[in-house]
Specification:
Elements lengths: L3 H12 L3 H6 L2 H11 L1 H21 L8 H11 L4 H17 L1 H16 L5 E4 L2 E9 L5 E8 L2
Antiparallel strand pairs: 1-2, 2-3
Helix pairs in contact: 1-6, 3-4, 4-7, 5-6, 6-7
């Protein structure tokens, strides 16, 4: 299993482009997201975001108040290229994964299943498309696969 910091780094990288759509919600926003970041990545992002938020809220005793992870995600949505905003989100994800190792296992398993589901699986991270056989290392690096830089 990846450690919490490496997994948080990977999750943040994959979620960052989807955050504005995840926070907006609605079918139109979700359709746009699917086109922009790819269906496979979007489905993984929705499921992962739902888990992160629900587990974060359950830690607060089920209160319906904004969690720190949602606040950090809102900053990423408002400032997508701000590295500090992304670092804050990564930190909140890491804290949650550290406190809830079972959640980390679930997210890592979902990542591996998405990667293995098909040779046609495509994951888009920013302007980089990764498809085919790619391996995520313990340091969070992606090795192998067909990597395309650009749009």
């Amino acid at each position: 299993m990846l450690d919490a910091a490496a997994l948080a780094k990977m999750v943040t990288s994959l979620l960052a482009p989807a955050i504005p759509y995840l926070l907006k919600g609605g079918e139109q926003a979700w359709g746009e997201a699917s086109k922009k970041i790819g269906t496979d990545t979007w489905e993984w992002a929705k499921a992962t975001w739902t888990k992160l938020v629900s587990r974060s809220k359950s830690k607060l005793g089920g209160e319906e108040k904004t969690t720190e992870i949602v606040k950090a995600a809102t900053e990423v949505a408002n400032n997508p290229s701000d590295e500090d905003a992304q670092a804050a989100l990564r930190f909140q994800i890491k804290k949650l994964l550290t406190d809830d190792p079972e959640l980390g296992l679930e997210i890592e398993k979902a990542l591996n299943e998405a990667k293995k589901s098909s040779d046609q699986t495509r994951i888009r991270i920013g302007g980089v498309d990764i498809s085919g056989e790619a391996t995520v290392t313990n340091s969070g690096n992606i090795v192998g696969g067909n990597q395309t830089i650009g749009n």
